[in-house]
Amino acid sequence: MFFHVSRTVFFQPRILTAGALLVLALCATSAPVLAHSNDPGSPGDRVCTLLSMLGQTPPQCQEQSEEISPEVQAKLDDLFLSILPFFNFDVAVAAGWDTIPGGECVESPMGGMGYHLQNLDQLANGHLNLLRPEALLYAPIEDGSLKFVGVEYIIPGALWDHPDPPVFLEQQLHFNPNVGPTGIWALHVWIVEENPNGMFADWNPEVSCEFAAEE
Fold first, then answer.
1. Residue 34: which pLDDT band, with cuts at 50, 70 and 90?
2. Domain boundaries, the chain
3. What is the pLDDT of residue 81?
4. Mutual angle of helices 18-29 and 43-53, in 10-degree steps
5. How far apart are alpha carbons 41 and 47 in whole angstroms?
6. Which DSSP helix (H) or strand (E) runs through 117?
7. 108 by DSSP, 3-state: which?
8. Worst-scoring range by mean pLDDT, 55-64, 86-95, 114-123?
């Protein structure tokens, strides 16, 4: 069950720093750079070190406490590269993700999710696409801007007529009957903000709505 904190959304985009733009350019020219290797001088390790120095270390560059298969890890690397431009909120909006009127910053006693920027075209087709998540998650921070924290894959309940839950990234999606007219199947992926409860947990205790704009 969701526990919503309703706040009026006054978005102030986070602009990519020069360092982050350098990382983006580097990643754009070398797609496999986040693939890990036992060689300490491998491109993946070098880029993870650079990302860490710039304060943009993705969870997949850190030691994982949960078991993630090499196949899923490779997909997470591809996903992270594809969503790098969305550290800039305006770029995400221009690419087809936007807020729903009255959109709320979502949190609960178990943690937060932040604001959901949804891609309505992607939601309407009922098919999950690794590089085009149905929602991008942004958390409000103290300076009034939004921090990109993760993504969410969603299938509207009306578009899933199988007896078993959908599976994506080797994870079962969770059903939430309280969203939309027919509920949704959802999978959160904390690809940017590390979640101590796990990469695919619904709630992230490191995310809150404390600094969301008051109504």
1. very low
2. 4-13+87-189, 18-86
3. 92
4. 170
5. 10
6. strand 111-118
7. strand
8. 55-64
